[in-house]
Fold Ribonuclease H.
Amino acid sequence: MGKKNFYVVKEGYKKGLFDNWPDCQAAVKGYKGAVFKGFETKAEALAWKDDGEDQKGGVKTNSSEDKVCEANWEYDYDVYTDGSYRNGKYSFGYVFVKEGQVVFEANGAGENHEAAVMRNVAGEIAAVIHAVKKAKSLNAKIRIYHDYSGIAHWVTGAWKAKNKFTQAYVTFMKEYQGLYTFEKVAGHSGNRFNDYVDRLAKEALGINSK
């Protein structure tokens, strides 16, 4: 089978035609009932996009890239993560949510002074790493909600991990691939649990968040 050059998403976080795999993956990874397919030519992609074909449960091809995206991924907990920064120190916070209720929460200050150059992003990364470790200890699969795009984009390859901290993060996450999936949320938008972990992260630095 030839190389896939175009992708069409009919059901996903974002629908339409994509000319690269990372963008397609970001649009469908973790989306239940995702419908997508890769094509060698743009003409083939547009033809499938416009034909109204219904392929519930996702479209499978022989492309190894397509296999990365698990359209009907099942998970045990929603996990919200966030980071904060103040006076040269960063912090993290995360919660495990089941049926709309917090079942576990944790926060803490970062210990890597060199990583603090990344400010709150260092905390964002730390939150996800701690949450994945917790999920592993519970033998659970999680959907990670984050408000910083790099959290998912570095792992999917949509963004290049350019420093040793983001590279170490990608290496760690790939070790646990299959245990988690990502979903982006808008920060400071009134999302209950996103606001919750924002407060947790700030509290770890002694910031009084109202």
